[in-house]
Specification:
Length: about 725
């Protein structure tokens, strides 16, 4: 087993990952540390508007706020669950560009995906999924993203990303068996702000970002816009075509209007869209002659492929504050389109090409009533939510002459096509109550009733050339419902230590596969119970914080991604499973200008009962994509210079321990990364250089078995190599 360098050198070392220390007069924007630390502000340079509530001062003694319990902002320490927020300052100072990069700071959290951004798969405490609906759902401003295809978007204009670990079905609903990820965008400002950034680097990478906001009518109507454009050459070269395969080209924009007709009402309109034109999937055998492990960033394929994604989403958030009761409405309409192609024999033989077209449109509505923030007595909320989704999916395997009699001797030349229409609607009611029992104990109980009905109309045909042969048809409806409770007890053990215990039920509805082997066209509900003990503390007037948690997850009928060489990816139920582990998060301001923090996660996972697609009994094996260790460490030093200037240096280190790609535990990978940043700036500008993956770690974050005759053969792709560049930011 590969051991991280810091563990070898220093035994059990809990590292520290950086936060920026800066005073209110600091010309460089301060960093909000992961987990706890400085409270977020609307931007690095913005002051609070007159007549509106002033945010907490940016000091290391102010707790970082989250909205994990849905009833307004509260400090991380007051929330009886495991939650890690990654704030706008940390996103900026660490150069975080995506949710998978932000997840590196969160213990027992691993977000993987293919080289193209259209697919991203979060795993928390061993709970996750590949194909199908996510088991760790992503939300954007509390709006659920029903598919993994729309989750990995630009972080420009994001106030913070909250990572909730453990089942959150009682409040957040479907597909939060393992947890939830909530992206919270920055509200428009009634005081003008502007922030622009240009980043240039190797592989001809270019990133342009802008975030502007200001008033249209003083204290009544404000606007905001954030956008980015990113492109780079591919990391991987196709030695057959001579072209790089995994290039990127993406434009993203978010426009907002904030209307405050009076002191108690706000209406916020948010519109975001994206056009992505990425290169193809760079999937190739891991081992053997020319394999990625011996010959990284090289593939030999007759066809390059492509991945294209378009997203358009509109959301209206209406909040009404009252003396006793607050009201909130969230209305959203979203849609995305996918068009992709890939070499499906993963070789230089012109055997099989894969073409995929997917589209989803859905409407979402949520209403909430809750006790007013300054109300004395028990806190409570009740709500209802629902959605309607209409999606179409089509996948075609084109069997070409080069593969006949070689790769697929039993398959004729022609096109195997599956297409389907999927309709899904859901309804839920939920509530939560928190009651003080004595002076130091609070009991929180939440419950949700969730109902979902899904219908699938799927047709599979084969076209050998000139005519179409029907193969199979699916026309089915299924209904799923569940009562989802959660209970937590929080104890203020002393003035600076809070302890809690919780139990929560998780639920993920079943569904239908577009393509799958016979008898696997549909899959059932996934269910879990998670039990957690935790403690959160602050020391030395908030200069140091420490959070710890221990958990046990017990679930039935886990929905597990499988791969079939003809059908492609599909979902099946995997019987009983369990996971258990511990987590630790630390922050510390150890000296003037020097701040450290770190996180560590350890877990053990196991299939209790499951036979995989190769007929192997994998009971006792580890779950896929469940690293035994996840560690993060780093530091940032800020030096005050004359005339209001500053210099800074930053170091980030991440380690992901051994993990497996599949239930058979036949492939494994571990890796560690080191990132460096150095720079300086003045009152309205900042210049920095960066070096990511400084020691050129080569690793394969995702792979799957592609040979039906040999479960030991995997195809995958190399993660990003060493990258470097410079960034120039101007802000007002």
């Amino acid at each position: 087993m590969k051991k991280p360098a810091l563990l070898v050198a220093g035994g059990w070392f809990i590292g520290f990952v950086p936060m920026t220390i800066a005073t209110a007069q600091s010309p460089l924007p301060p960093t909000a540390p992961s987990g706890q630390g400085t409270a977020p502000q609307e931007s690095a340079t913005q002051e609070p508007e007159e007549g509106r509530q002033k945010p907490a001062e940016t000091t290391t003694t102010a707790p970082f706020v989250v909205t994990a319990q849905k009833w307004g902002e509260e400090s991380v320490r007051d929330v009886p669950m495991s939650v890690t927020p990654i704030g706008a300052k940390q996103i900026r100072d660490a150069g975080i560009r995506s949710v998978p990069e932000a997840a590196r700071y969160v213990p027992n959290t691993f977000v993987t995906g293919f080289s193209a951004r259209r697919l991203s798969f979060p795993f928390v405490r061993g709970v996750g999924s590949g194909q199908g609906d996510p088991a760790v759902a992503t939300f954007i401003d509390d709006v659920p993203q029903l598919s993994v295809s729309s989750t990995n978007v630009s972080l420009v204009g994001i106030e913070r990303v909250e990572f909730l670990r453990g089942p959150n079905s009682a409040l957040w609903g479907r597909n939060t068996v393992g947890g939830a990820i909530n992206l919270i965008t920055r509200e428009p400002s009634f005081r003008g702000r502007a922030d622009a950034n240009v980043t240039l680097g190797n592989f001809d990478s270019q990133l342009f970002e802008v975030d502007v906001s200001g008033p249209i009518m003083d204290d009544v109507l404000a606007f905001g816009f954030s956008g980015s454009y990113e492109q780079r050459d591919g990391f991987t070269t196709n030695t057959i075509t001579g072209r790089d395969v995994d290039s990127r080209d993406s434009a993203f924009g978010r426009a907002q209007l904030l209307w405050t007709p009076n002191d108690s009402s706000t209406v916020r309109l948010i519109l975001h869209g994206e056009e992505t034109r990425d290169g193809g999937f760079v999937l190739s055998p891991l081992d053997g002659p020319g394999g990625l492990r011996s010959n990284p960033f090289r593939v030999a394929q007759d066809f390059d492929g492509r991945t294209e994604r378009d997203i358009l989403a509109a959301t209206v958030i209406w909040e009404q504050k009252g003396d006793q009761v607050d009201f909130k409405s969230i209305t959203s309409a979203q849609g995305w389109d996918i068009d992709e192609s890939a070499d499906f024999d993963f070789s230089l033989i012109d055997g099989v090409r894969r073409f995929t077209n997917e589209k989803q449109d859905y409407l979402y509505q949520e209403f909430r009533l809750e006790s007013a923030a300054d109300n004395k007595g028990p806190r409570w909320l009740v709500g209802t939510s629902g959605f309607y989704s209409d999606s179409t999916r089509a996948a075609s395997n084109v069997f070409r002459p080069g593969g006949a009699g070689v790769l697929f001797p039993a398959m004729n030349v022609g096109t195997d096509r599956s297409s389907g229409n999927f309709e899904d609607h859901a309804f839920s009611v939920f509530g939560q109550l928190a009651v003080d029992v004595g002076e130091r104990v609070e009991v929180t109980a939440a419950v949700r009733y969730d109902y979902e009905r899904t219908a699938a109309r799927i047709t599979r045909t084969f076209d050998p050339g000139g005519f179409t042969v029907p193969v199979a048809n699916t026309d089915q409806d299924r209904t799923f419902d569940r009562v989802l409770p959660r209970v937590a007890v929080k104890v203020d053990a002393c003035d600076n230590v809070t302890a809690y215990a919780s139990a929560a039920h998780g639920f993920k509805a079943g569904g239908f596969n577009l393509t799958a082997p016979a008898m696997s066209e549909s899959f059932g509900t996934e269910k879990s119970w998670t039990y957690e003990l935790g403690a959160k503390s602050e020391w030395a007037d908030g200069r140091f914080t420490a959070n710890a948690a221990a958990f046990y997850v017990d679930w039935d009928d886990m929905q597990l991604s499988q791969f079939d060489s003809t059908a492609g990816g599909y979902v099946t139920n995997a019987g009983a499973s369990n996971s258990a582990g511990v987590e630790l998060e630390l922050t510390g301001e150890v000296a003037d200008g020097l701040a450290l923090f770190g996180s560590a996660g350890w877990m053990t996972t196991e299939f209790d009962a499951f036979v995989d697609q190769f007929g192997q009994n994998v009971a006792g094996n580890d779950l896929p994509f469940a690293p035994e260790f996840t560690l993060a460490a780093g530091a940032q030093y800020t030096l005050e210079l004359d005339n209001g200037y500053q210099g800074f240096a930053r170091f980030d280190w991440f380690y992901v321990g051994d993990f497996y790609y599949d239930a058979g535990n036949l492939g494994q990978e571990s890796f560690d990364l080191a990132n460096f940043r150095i720079g300086g700036g003045g009152e309205n500008w900042r210049l920095e250089g960066f070096l990511n993956n400084a020691f050129e770690e080569e690793y394969i974050p995702l792979a799957f078995q592609a040979n039906p005759a040999d479960p030991s053969q995997f195809v995958g792709f190399n993660a990003a190599p060493q990258t470097w560049g410079v960034s120039m930011r101007v802000f007002f």
